[in-house]
Amino acid sequence: MKIQAPKGTRDILPSEIHKWQYVSSVFAKHCERFGYKEIRIPVFEHTELFQRGVGDTTDIVQKEMYTFDDKGGRSITLRPEGTAGVVRSYIENGMFSLAMPIKLYYDITAYRYENVQKGRYREFHQFGVEAFGAVGPQIDVEIISILYMFFEKLGLRQTGLNINSIGCPECRSAYHDKLKDFFRPNLQYFCDDCKSRFEKNPLRIIDCKNEGCKRFIEGAPRLLGNLCEGCRSHFEGLKAGLDNLGINYSIDPNIVRGLDYYTKTVFEFVSENGGSQGTICGGGRYDGLVEECGGPATPGIGFALGVERLLMELDSQGVMIEEPPAPDIYIAALGQRAMDFAQQLVYKLRGCNVWAETDLMDRSLKAQMKYADKKGFAFTIVLGDDEIEAGKGVLKDMRTGDQKDVSLDSIVDRLKNQAAKQL
RNA sequence: GUGGGCUUAGCUCAGUUGGUUAGAGUGCCAGGUUGUGGCCCUGGAGGUCGUGGGUUCGAUUCCCAUAGCUCACCCCA
User: Nearest nucleotide to A121 by CA–C1' distance?
Assistant: First the structure.
């Protein structure tokens, strides 16, 4: 039986790697400009971190985690997202004693055991940002502006920003009571999922897509209209801050985010090209998370951006990503003397940062030329006994087909100081 | 967890109303030029026709099961 990549994983092949490298490097430089530093966290953590951090009631923890016991009997889980690990690191490394706010970004893989479909994989890539220590809405605005400008830099259009506030524990518990009072008379008619949500997180009942439930959801009080004074003014501050920067947004009271740790601000960027996996990026504030994970009470906010979905969106919007550069020069050699010389030559050229290759398969001149053509070399040098004897090589421009003799003594110096393309 | 579609060469796909050695295009390798790529011509390698079972004289083709891929629901990046 042929061994295949596990379901939901895929190879990123050399033919497409330049796209990944491009978005990663643009993202990294972009974040640095906002004062964020990269953090690298483990692929796996103790299972408990995600149970506490992401939340026991979430789909992620309930059914999507890659969890196993290691040989020491510890329960280990492949990270289903990045925030929990970053928070753990923040606490473990005492970052709360560094200059606030702490501003971090990351470029990671994440793992969720789900059925795959377009834009959804079991191993997927996320760019993320987390900021700790800032209470006010200014940091919310900065975080969102990172994304807004990032999409602009990449040349994306029509990517909609939706924002919402889901309140703090105080106004949420008051609101939960209100919601429960609203749902309680009809509780018996709700689906099983909703019945269990009723106690744990009644907020999520509103999201239920079940037709039977929808009838009783209609007219339910909205959290956005029931925020406490602090949360209300925070949300107002966020909107004013976005307006101040000219960032367009819509208010979507239905955004809840599937992770339990969110408080106050939640937001997402969605593709307007439809598609069921339209959420390219999601994020929000998590003021209780650091404390929940055992650290000092510290406000935080961040986002995660799906790299697969970002690339899909770039593709569907026709945004071109520059092809990798063509190789500089191929040394085609005939005969042992010439081949030995060619080996020396490419070695020297490589030492001078010139992209040079020569034959490794004892192939005919014709086959070597074919290779140079297929790989897109700008130039070749043909070397045989005659050339070695005369101290010259035949330099060929592969695009035009023009050939001319070049001195072998000076060839390295010439290529060292100027790109082969300019020869 | 639930439902639909698909599965023949590295890739994209034909095909067989069940019948000797299963095809094309493309890609790869080589030759046509014993010192020259692209175009063209010729040849070669490459397939247990997803896997297992059944029906049949005979199955890639019909039936059943199963796996994988894919799309969608839920949820999410």
Answer: B77
